[in-house]
Amino acid sequence: MSETPQNTKPKRPKLRNVSLKKLNRKYDFLMSHDESGRPILNFKLNLLNLILVIIGIALLLIIITTFIIAFTPLREYIPGYTDTSLDREVYELNLRADSLSREMRKKDVYFENLKCRRASRIPLR
Question: In 16-116, which ranges are E strands?
Answer without folding.
Answer: 26-32, 39-46
